[in-house]
Every structure is written in structure tokens, then in C-alpha cells.
């Protein structure tokens, strides 16, 4: 068996321990004589695993029973319209802090449902290279919620502080850095994340809603059944068939985070070391590699950099693949190189990548 170093941005690397457990249980899960993909979602075996995944999520996040943990489909992108559909009605408005591609995509959907205040750090050329300072953030207290994207996968920036938004509920898209570090759950009212970066495979999106904010949602009768958060909350995300296999892998990944890694305090130490290794390689290259993001806004999940020409970047991608390092090509809209070093990537993988970068720079300088 040959395993590569997987720096794909999503779907992304899954912990080896999780993959091996899934392999062992593929034909006979939990003594049922069936794969988890074949078991009824109405069975007591499945429901126990489903509920356990919710409890594991609360434990890792430091959330109490006042948080509703929902499992949805449609990716985080579906939350771009579901959130305003459920919350922006009547005379309500929201505030969006725009720091990258996906928060711009969220605005595109939200403005269909109500007025928005927008605070952005977009550069004239359409790029994003920093997170706003607290002094730049002026929130209208009449806003129903403030929306942020905690980590920007395409441009490689990340919030390293949580903005003070007063008493306005804070909504956060944590798709690309969920559980990569501890966070104060009490600062948030709504968190969502596609699983395919740090929580498992594609196919399931986790939505966590604090009860007081949940109560502000539009009545279910006003919405299509499958677009109302009340449908999922009142039916334990089992109104219809959920993405059972994705939730199963999510469950195993949360156990890995809790039991093997030892929780988020340990996970952030590992992630910080991986990021340090790779950013040090960029900064020590005397300009051969260029990191476009301001240093105090650099992402610990997506290390983005450029080389002298697009042709050299193509050569970098090709030679990295030959060396067993895959998924390093930057997003199609930006070009460049991107190492997505999510939780499942090892410190040793970052060291190997940094060694390749050093060798490549000597060869082509």
C-alpha cells in the first residue's frame, strides 16, 4: 500500500486510524452483519451512533445541552441561503464581515432575503490579504446577526481573534478550521461547517444553534419543510434519511480528536507547529516563495504562496506529485500553491513538504 501526503483542500485527508476502523467495520458494523451504509436510520444501533456524534461534538466544542446539533446535507454553501431564509424576514437585516471568497458567496445568497451591512477587506484587484482590525468593525445593534467566515481556504487568511459584536448574535462559517483549535462557544449563537476538511468526508454539514437564537428563527409553516431548521431540530435530524456513512465517519473522527489527540488544546499545538514549519520555509527562501497574506492574518490551515511565474508553479505541482505530495495546486481562481494542512495531516508531512520546498528552490533559483 502506498499512501501519499494529501494536502487537498477538501475533500481532504482523514486520519489513518479512522480509515482503518471503517475498513474493519465495512462488512459488519456493530455486530449488525451489515455495513453502516445498509443499516436503517430508524434502527436503535444507528440512532445510538447518531446521538453519540452529537454528544462528542458538544464535548469538544464545550457546548451545553442548550446547543442543538443538526446534521444536514447540501454542504456549507446551502447554509448561505438557509440562514437568511430562516432569520431575515420582516424588517430584519444582517451584517456580513467579508474576508474571502466564501463570505462573498454567502452575501450573494443573503441579499436575496433582506438588507445587509457589509464590512470588507477586499483589495481593488479582488484579492484578500488580511483580517480586519477590531477598530474597523462597526456593528449596527439592530442587526439580527453578524456573519463571519473564520478561515479563508482560497486566500489563506484566518481570524486569530473573535470580533466583539456587542449583543448581536454571532454566526460563523467554520468549515475549514472547525476543531483545529479551541474557541469560546459562548461568543457564538450559530456555527456551521462542512465536514470534508476537519471532521470527515463530504456529504454532511454540522449546524450548531444555541437555543436562544434558534427561537428567533422563522416559523416552520412559512418555509419549505426541508429548508427549516425546526424540521431538523424537532426530528433529531432524522426527518428523512440522513447521510449515514458521513455521520459515521464524523463520529469516528470526533473520537480520534478526543481520545487519540487529547482534545483541541493538543490539536492546536500540532497545527501551530505544522504552520510554523511551512511559513518558516517561505520566509527563509529570500523571496523565491512569496506569501501574499499579512503575517498576523496567516491561516494555520491553508498555507498559500506564489512562485515567480505560473509556469514554475506548474513545475512545482508536477514535481511535488512525483515526490508523493499531492493536492498542492492553488484554487483555480487564484493560481499559486496551497498546502491545506488540516487536522489529519502529520507534523512529519509538513517537515517533508518543507524539505521539498528547500530542494526545489535550490534547483530552480
Please outline what is shown here.
With 365 residues, this protein is an alpha/beta fold.
Report on this structure.
The protein has 365 residues and is an alpha/beta fold. It folds into two domains: 16-261, Aspartate Aminotransferase, domain 2 (3-Layer(aba) Sandwich); 264-364, Alpha-Beta Complex (Aspartate Aminotransferase, domain 1), CATH 3.90.1150.10. The protein has ten helices and 13 strands. The protein has helices at residues 16-24, 44-61, 75-87, 101-110, 211-214, 229-234, 244-261, 264-283, 310-322, 347-364, and strands at 5-6, 67-72, 94-98, 116-120, 146-149, 151-152, 157-158, 170-173, 190-194, 205-210, 302-305, 325-326, 337-340. The strands form four sheets. Strands 2-10-9-8-5-3-4 form a seven-stranded mixed beta sheet, with helices on both faces. Strands 1-12 form a two-stranded parallel sheet. Strands 6-7 form a two-stranded antiparallel ribbon. Strand 3 (94-98), helix 4 (101-110) and strand 4 form a beta-alpha-beta unit. Helix 1 packs across helix 7 and helix 8 packs parallel to helix 10. It is globular and about 65 Å long. The mean pLDDT is 97.
CATH topology of the largest domain: Aspartate Aminotransferase, domain 2
Major sheet size, sense and barrel closure: 7 strands, mixed
List the secondary-structure elements in sequence, H or E. Answer: EHHEHEHEEEEEEEHHHHEHEEH
Would you state the CATH class of the largest domain?
Alpha Beta
The portion of residues assigned to helices is 25-40%
User: In total, how many beta strands?
Assistant: 13
CATH architecture of the largest domain: 3-Layer(aba) Sandwich
Count of domain modules: 2
Q: Count helical runs.
A: 10
Runs in which pLDDT lies below 50 for 5 or more consecutive residues are none
Percentage of β-strand residues: 5-15%
Sequence of strands across the biggest β-sheet: 2-10-9-8-5-3-4
C-alpha Rg, in Å? 21 Å
Please report the distance between the alpha carbons of the first and last residues: 35 Å
Helix vs. strand class: alpha/beta
Identify the overall geometry.
globular
Amino acid at each position: 500500500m502506498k499512501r501519499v501526503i494529501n494536502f487537498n483542500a477538501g475533500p481532504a485527508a482523514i486520519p489513518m486510524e479512522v480509515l482503518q476502523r471503517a475498513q474493519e467495520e465495512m462488512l459488519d458494523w456493530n455486530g449488525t452483519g451489515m455495513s453502516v451504509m445498509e443499516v436503517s436510520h430508524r434502527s436503535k444501533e444507528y440512532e445510538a451512533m447518531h446521538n453519540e456524534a452529537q454528544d462528542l461534538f458538544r464535548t469538544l466544542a464545550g457546548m451545553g445541552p442548550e446547543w442543538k446539533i443538526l446534521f444536514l446535507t447540501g454542504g456549507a454553501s446551502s447554509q448561505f441561503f438557509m440562514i437568511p431564509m430562516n432569520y431575515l424576514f420582516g424588517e430584519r437585516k444582517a451584517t456580513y464581515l467579508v474576508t474571502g471568497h466564501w463570505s462573498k458567496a454567502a452575501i450573494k445568497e443573503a441579499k436575496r432575503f433582506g438588507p445587509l451591512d457589509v464590512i470588507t477587506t477586499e483589495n481593488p484587484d479582488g484579492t484578500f490579504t488580511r483580517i480586519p482590525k477590531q477598530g474597523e468593525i462597526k456593528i449596527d445593534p439592530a442587526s439580527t446577526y453578524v456573519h463571519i467566515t473564520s478561515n479563508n481556504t482560497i486566500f489563506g487568511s484566518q481570524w486569530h481573534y473573535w470580533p466583539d459584536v456587542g449583543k448581536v448574535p454571532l454566526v460563523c462559517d467554520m468549515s475549514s478550521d472547525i476543531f483545529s483549535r479551541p474557541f469560546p462557544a459562548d461568543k457564538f449563537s450559530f456555527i456551521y461547517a462542512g465536514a470534508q476538511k476537519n471532521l470527515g468526508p463530504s456529504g454532511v454539514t454540522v449546524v450548531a444553534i444555541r437555543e436562544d437564537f434558534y427561537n428567533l428563527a422563522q416559523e416552520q409553516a412559512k418555509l419549505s419543510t426541508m429548508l427549516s431548521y425546526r424540521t431538523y431540530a424537532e426530528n433529531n435530524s432524522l426527518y428523512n434519511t440522513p447521510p449515514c456513512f458521513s455521520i459515521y465517519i464524523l463520529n469516528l473522527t470526533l473520537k480520534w480528536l478526543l481520545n487519540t489527540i487529547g482534545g483541541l488544546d493538543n490539536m492546536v499545538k500540532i497545527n501551530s507547529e505544522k504552520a510554523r514549519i511551512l511559513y518558516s520555509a517561505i520566509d527563509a527562501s529570500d523571496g523565491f516563495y512569496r506569501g501574499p497574506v499579512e503575517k498576523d492574518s496567516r491561516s494555520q490551515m491553508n498555507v498559500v504562496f506564489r512562485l515567480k511565474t505560473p509556469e514554475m508553479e506548474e513545475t512545482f505541482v508536477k514535481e511535488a506529485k512525483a515526490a508523493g505530495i499531492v493536492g498542492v495546486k492553488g484554487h483555480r481562481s487564484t493560481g499559486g500553491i496551497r498546502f491545506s494542512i488540516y487536522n489529519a495531516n502529520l507534523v512529519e508531512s509538513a517537515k517533508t513538504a518543507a524539505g521539498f520546498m528547500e530542494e526545489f528552490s535550490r534547483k530552480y533559483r
